[in-house]
Amino acid sequence: IARLLRGLGFIVFNDDGSMDAGDSISEACESAIRACDLFILVHSKHSVESAWVTRELKLAIELEKKIIPICLDQTPKRPELGDILAVKFGGDLLAGLSAVQQALPRLIAPSRILRHAPKELFGRDDWLDELDAVWDSRTSVNVYSLIAWGGSGKTSLVAHWVNRRLARRGWPGVERYFDWSFYSQGTREQSQASADFFIAAALEFFGDPDPTQGSAWDRGQRLAKLVRRHRTLLVLDGIEPLQYPPNSQMAGEFKDQAIEALLNALAQDNPGLCIVTSREPLKNLETFEEGGGAEEKPLNHLTKEAAIALLRHLAIAGTEAEMEAAWRDAGGHALTLQLLGRFLADAHGGDIRRRKEVKFEVADRETPGRTAMKVMLAYETWLQSAGPDRQR
């Protein structure tokens, strides 16, 4: 039964395999019952005669836990179960437990990233399918990170996936959802980037009695334990303010102990999934990649076909060769192509030939943000050329 429940995505506590030598059985069982969403009672002649089972059932009833009896034989139902419907051990067991899974309450936090979900996403279908596969497979990937320059579309991709593949479909397989964006904290080395607000908000959401208690490391570990109680989807977007910058000897490592403790713990054990986006590789998690607990993927630039589709969606007119040249000039950078399309539409009626007003250079493609900045400079020049009326 435990294997079947785990296969359905439940996090199962039982006295066989859920405790370590030296643990107090009564304390461990009481703690598990208090934390659980569902109490499964294996009902049989032997369990009815067990003082342990009777004591645990009494606590579950007192705590008003949802109770599902699974009947192994024809033993009459305990009177304290009242009119609670049971599931028979047999052919209908899987269907019965699947129905229980769907009936369990979900807890979905208000999203901070869905406002970034684009109506149309170009050239990322394979990435959407990969995110589906990582979430659905229930494999050993516990922390999945997307790494790319700013403006490559990391946030748009994840927000679109959460919106279209999960939220609009009733959050399949998600028991808890929480996301956070760190972009507002800036990315300069001298900024006092901290995860304090995130940790406090997340601890409160997941039911911690005192989110301010303990050191940063302790709070990060405590949050990981709470996250692991459920099949949680945790999204941490733009985490680079909490990492050392590329010019540091500790480049990519976490500055913040709470974040380090949280992600290290989740990489080791996580029945759900944590998705992280950043401009810098997550150096602290490299040791977990070999065992599969962490997986890091570079988000590639837009393909030629996706870039042309994006430009045509923005009502840019031109030949395939001209569109391809624009894609090449921008280095396939998603934000640059978006800005270029809007600039050409606003300033030049969508004429792709006027892209030459943006002074792209080959070297721009090797520097993060340089191509997008060139488009912004062209935009600024155009706005200033017509005086205050256009600048409004």
Provide an overview of this structure:
The chain is an alpha/beta fold. It folds into three domains: 2-103, Rossmann fold (3-Layer(aba) Sandwich), CATH 3.40.50.10140; 107-298, Rossmann fold, CATH 3.40.50; 304-391. The protein is 42% helix and 11% strand. The longest helix has 16 residues, at 370-385. It is elongated, with a radius of gyration of 26 Å. The N and C termini lie far apart (67 Å).
Annotation keywords:
single chain; 392 residues; alpha/beta; Rossmann fold; 3 domains; 3-stranded parallel β-sheet; 11% strand
What is the CATH fold-level name of the largest domain? Answer: Rossmann fold
Helix content: 40-55%
Q: Determine the number of helices (DSSP H or I, runs of at least 4 residues).
A: 16
Low-confidence stretches: 185-192
- CATH architecture type of the largest domain: 3-Layer(aba) Sandwich
Layout: helices, strands, pairs:
Layout: H1 2-7, H2 25-35, E1 38-43, H3 45-48, H4 51-62, E2 66-71, E3 87-88, H5 93-103, E4 107-108, H6 125-137, E5 143-147, H7 154-166, E6 176-181, H8 196-205, H9 216-227, E7 232-237, H10 257-268, E8 273-278, H11 286-289, E9 294-298, H12 304-313, H13 320-329, H14 334-348, H15 370-385, H16 388-391
Parallel strand pairs: 1-2, 2-3, 4-6, 5-8, 5-9, 6-7, 7-8
Helix pairs in contact: 6-7, 8-9, 9-10, 12-13, 14-15
Task: Kindly summarize this structure in a few lines.
With 392 residues, this protein is α/β, with parallel strands linked by helices. It has helices at 2-7, 25-35, 45-48, 51-62, 93-103, 125-137, 154-166, 196-205, 216-227, 257-268, 286-289, 304-313, 320-329, 334-348, 370-385, 388-391; strands at 38-43, 66-71, 87-88, 107-108, 143-147, 176-181, 232-237, 273-278, 294-298.
